[in-house]
Design goal:
Blueprint (H helix, E strand, L loop, with lengths): L1 E2 L6 H9 L5 E2 L1 H20 L23 H11 L10 H12 L2
Parallel strand pairs: 1-2
Helix pairs in contact: 1-4
């Protein structure tokens, strides 16, 4: 299944969730990701203040994070979103959610 941000349908999502097909990024999608990465790196290199890239979050949004701490900040964002309560999601549901997120 090619992920291009436009053509993911329910049938494909179901197959992805079951692990019956593999997900593949299109060249256009890869190029968009690279361009986005370059933009973020430019923001960091030039010291431009951008929420969540080099600032704290929520009440700490006005706090500028030192360049040396930005990798740690991003890891902590991921860690903070990895926790939850209740039943663990099934592998199928997790695959589907990741595919939907990647498809944006």
């Amino acid at each position: 299944i090619n992920i291009d941000g436009n053509s993911l349908d329910m049938d494909s999502l179901i197959l992805l969730g079951k692990g019956e097909v593999k997900l593949m990024l299109t060249l256009e999608t890869i190029n968009k990701l690279k361009a986005t990465r370059a933009t973020v790196e430019e923001i960091v290199d030039k010291g431009i203040v951008r929420y969540g890239i080099n600032t704290g979050f929520g009440l700490l949004s006005k706090v500028l994070i030192e360049k040396e701490k930005l990798v740690e900040l991003q890891y902590n964002v991921i860690r903070s979103h990895c926790a939850g309560i209740g039943e663990t999601l099934s592998q199928e549901a997790t695959r589907r959610m990741l595919a939907l997120r990647i498809n944006v």
